[in-house]
Design goal:
The chain is α+β, with helices and mostly antiparallel strands. The protein has helices spanning 2-19, 36-64, 70-87, 97-165, 171-193, 206-209, 224-231, 251-261, 281-291, 306-310; strands at 24-25, 94-95, 198-204, 213-219, 241-248, 276-278, 296-299. The protein has a five-stranded antiparallel beta sheet. Residues 311-344 are annotated as: Disordered.
Length: 344
């Protein structure tokens, strides 16, 4: 990794500066008991002591730095340098500016490196989650195709028996049913083949996150509510409420457009894998109508939050419910628009 290589080179340079007496500045014309050699030894010993104290603090800053604490650590090290300059004023002992800048750069690079490592971990985690979700969707498609194939075989057998008996009653109805099943199987095959097709969902969790936060994601599942139920597992105290389900042949692109439109409202501005946004369902609806349009299956602005309400609608340890969390926008729905048929 480029950051790691830069950090290693910088740390090697810091060691070279310290060993080459380039880390500390001090006067050299001191004498002790009339001996300039003893005076130089005293200055050298004090310089090493001061450098050791400075390096101990610098090392501590590097060990404990986090991306959000860089400024605090840099300021802390600057104060240590100023303290050393004050204590060593008599012999004009101070940490060299170039050495201090190198150690500050070490703090910054370490924070950047840790940030990149965390980003990579999150990327790997997100990719594993995507693969797991894709595998679940694949199993959904296989189960649905198996169910449809079994039903198709049943109607084909019934049709064959009617035709063998010479009876025409019910033949047309069976043939129509077989055509519908063939279309349904073709629809599932098309969904399975198109890795971008799926549902974009808008959900909220009033009891966990309050009225001004939503999550916008996508799933390829045949039944999108399965994914939403999984998100409301033990990691949150209440289940999510669904505000919108949008089927699209390019759900990946639709999700990206929605995220881009709400980018300024993103809760986590560092990790874009976290799909939460500071917005009310009513605010998101306006964006959806502009971007999703006729693809909108349904929209509900008022979250039911049944578990939260049944639990007392509390937003803190107190017993009284917080009335401010009740959405003020009246419930509204749009007429459902059915997605392409994938089942009989």
């Amino acid at each position: 990794m480029a950051y790691k290589e830069r950090l290693n080179r910088l740390q090697q340079s810091i060691k070279t500066m310290a060993r080459g007496d380039q880390a500390v500045l001090a006067v050299t014309n001191w004498t002790v008991n009339g001996s300039s050699r003893e005076g130089a030894a005293m200055v050298r010993d004090f310089s090493r002591l001061m450098l050791r104290a400075y390096n101990a603090e610098a090392d501590n800053c590097v060990r404990n730095v986090k991306p959000h604490r860089v400024a605090a650590m840099v300021d802390r090290l600057a104060k240590v340098r100023a303290t050393i300059a004050r204590l060593g004023k008599t012999m004009d002992i101070q940490i060299a500016g170039s050495y201090h800048e190198a150690r500050v750069m070490e703090i910054r690079l370490t924070a950047d490196y840790l940030g990149k490592v965390e980003e990579e971990k999150e990327r790997v985690r997100a990719e594993r989650e995507r693969q797991r979700e894709e595998e679940r969707a694949r199993r959904d498609f296989e189960r649905e195709k198996a169910r449809l194939a079994k039903e198709q075989a049943h109607y084909q057998s019934a049709l064959a028996k009617l035709q063998a008996s010479g009876s025409t009653a019910g033949v047309e109805e069976l043939q129509q049913k077989l055509e519908e099943l063939a279309d349904a199987i073709a629809g599932v095959d098309a969904r399975d083949a198109n890795v971008r097709a799926g549902y974009v969902y808008v959900i909220s969790n009033l009891g966990a996150f309050g009225p001004d936060m939503v999550k916008i994601g996508m799933t390829r599942r045949l039944e999108p509510q399965d994914r939403i139920r999984e998100l409301g597992d033990a990691s949150v105290p209440f289940r999510f409420d669904t505000h919108a389900l949008i089927f699209s042949e390019d759900a990946v692109g639709l999700e990206s457009r929605l995220h881009a439109a709400l980018a300024e409202h993103r809760v986590n501005q560092v990790n874009t894998q976290r799909e939460f946004f500071y917005a009310t369902p009513a605010e998101v609806r306006a964006v959806l109508e502009r971007i999703a349009g006729q693809h909108l299956l349904e929209y509900r602005e008022m979250p039911e939050a049944l578990e939260w309400r049944a639990s007392g609608a509390r937003t803190s340890r107190g017993n009284a419910p917080d009335r401010a969390v009740e959405p003020s926008v009246p419930a509204a729905t749009m007429p459902p628009v059915a997605p392409p048929a994938v089942t009989a």
